[in-house]
Amino acid sequence: MADRGRARGRRGGRDDGGRSSRARRPASARRRTGADNAETTRSRLRRGLAAKRASGAAKVLGMSTTRRAAVVAIVVCALAFTVAVPLRTYLSQRSEVRDQEAQQSQLQQQVTQLQDRKAQLSDPAQIEAEARRRLRYVKPGEAPYMVQLPEDQAAAQAPPTGPQPVPQGSWYEKLWDQVSGG
Fold first, then answer.
1. Nearest-angstrom CA–CA distance, 36 and 80
2. Domain boundaries, the chain
3. What DSSP letter does each residue of 26-90 carry, written as one string?
4. pLDDT tens for residues 4-35?
5. CB 13 within 8 A of CB 21
6. According to the UniProt entry, which residue ranges have a biased composition of type Basic residues (predicted)?
């Protein structure tokens, strides 16, 4: 212990020549002294005690290394499943929020268009123009003209798409009329 106190007083435990005190001693004197021997014994005891504590923990739990590894694996899996469900919910809700935001922006555009249309229809001249175009209204004293285009006539001559008239009579009468030519 006294050696340690002296070594602290000097710079880094070196002598006047800058050499360490061990290097100055002869080989026979370099053997461990009692203080050094006590330090190594203490460190050995501490290491042994730490090893006993670690093995003691294993003995207290009563598990082998394989069992402990299995328990750790089960705990890790349980934690993974615990995190997986909320993570999946979070991701699905995030995509739903994105869809809802897209729908909201689309609805905002529709609202803007409808407000513009409302502003247009508040003008009496616009209402009159709509009535003339859609309802074919005319003012008193005006002569209305209808222009027929060839496309309009082709659509008017198309056969009706309604149900076909059912001929009267039974099937065998129709067959006899076809065979006899009448």
1. 51
2. 34-63
3. -GGGGS--HHHHHHHHHHHHHHHHHHHHHHHHHHHHT--HHHHHHHHHHHHHHHHHHHHHHHHHH
4. 555 444 444 444 555 545 555 555 555 555 55
5. yes
6. 21-32
